[in-house]
């Protein structure tokens, strides 16, 4: 007699974003483990920054907060853009 196939439980992580506004992730993503969720968070930061350019200042921070299924924040990562004018022409 064959034993029933059991599906392995895969945890779901939620990736909340703060880039000047807070965006709560209500759907989440299944990740094999914490390390996979961490990699997902780190990889998402440059992608977020790619589409948002600061218009009124030369600084902008992109933060991702990773929550587990219980709602506990288990990881956070921030990518910061900082620009600096090096000539007087830029300030005139």
How is this structure best described in words?
With 92 residues, the protein is α+β, with helices and mostly antiparallel strands. The protein has one domain (12-91). The chain is built from one helix and five strands. The chain has one helix at residues 34-50; strands spanning 12-18, 22-23, 29-30, 59-67, 73-82. Strands 1, 2, 3, 4 and 5 form a five-stranded antiparallel sheet that branches. It is elongated. The mean pLDDT is 87.
Detail the topology: elements first, then pairings.
Blueprint: E1 12-18, E2 22-23, E3 29-30, H1 34-50, E4 59-67, E5 73-82
Antiparallel strand pairs: 1-2, 1-3, 1-4, 4-5
Number of domains: 1
Number of beta strands: 5
| Biggest beta sheet attributes | 5 strands, antiparallel
What percentage of residues falls in helices of 4 or more residues?
10-25%
Given as residue ranges, the uncertain stretches (5+ residues, pLDDT < 50) are: none
Over the alpha carbons, how many angstroms does the gyration radius reach?
19 Å
Q: Which of globular, elongated, flat, extended, rod-shaped describes the shape?
A: elongated
Distance between the termini: 82 Å
> How many helix segments?
1
Q: Give the rounded overall mean pLDDT.
A: 87
Structural class: alpha+beta
Strand content: 25-35%
What is the H/E order? EEEHEE
Pfam families: DUF6894
Organism: Methylobacterium tardum
Protein name: DUF6894 domain-containing protein
Domain DUF6894: 12-80
What's a concise summary of this model?
The protein has one helix spanning 34-50; strands at 12-18, 22-23, 29-30, 59-67, 73-82.
